Amino acid sequence: MSAGAGRISNSVTVPRIIYTQGECEHAQQNPRIPRQLQGRLKKSARISRMTKPALSAAFRLSVARWLLTALGLLIQGHAVAFTKTLYLFSEVEGIVLRDGEPVVGALVEQEYHWHWGNQRRSSTAVTDRNGRFHFPTITGSSFTAQLFPHEPVITQYLRIMFESHSYEGWFHSKHNYEEKGEFGESPLRLQCDLKDEPGPHPEIGSFGICVPWTSPGRSSQ
Questions:
Q1: Residues 108/124, Cβ–Cβ less than 8 Å
Q2: pLDDT in tens, 151-171
């Protein structure tokens, strides 16, 4: 055996494994988890499943408390608004005439219909020796009427009865709760002549024989 043939090489050729970039990224994203750590993770998962209902109940309780607090603040913030006076019919000072002369002893009926809650009320007055009559301011109160947005509707009537005849004095539909909300005056000073035909008065949004009375003076009643 030649010297070259008898010489044994000490180097061993080891196969070289080449990993692709995709394999390297997969290995980084999904590292092998030791068994001991796997056991801890499984135990933690069991605890999480056991505490989930309790956490859910606590969350619901927290939301309920928050809603109650918000509602309380809302009510407290609007407490003043809820005590606001609602004007349904302004004070009325009127005079009844016939051919320009005062009518004594005419019966005047005042009525209103507050559509919120379907509330109706009426009262009467008798004209004095000067033909004058008077009705005080009518107000109302309602928690729900101030809480819920809506368009107010208060139908107002004045009817005059004299010598077995009935006269349409005043018809008006009030769409607010403000004082002087009919046509900007309080008291309402009205002149009602029994010889006039009832008709519309667009300038004040009314119907009947009663019209604004410019300078009547105070009622003697």
A1: yes
A2: 999 999 999 999 999 999 999
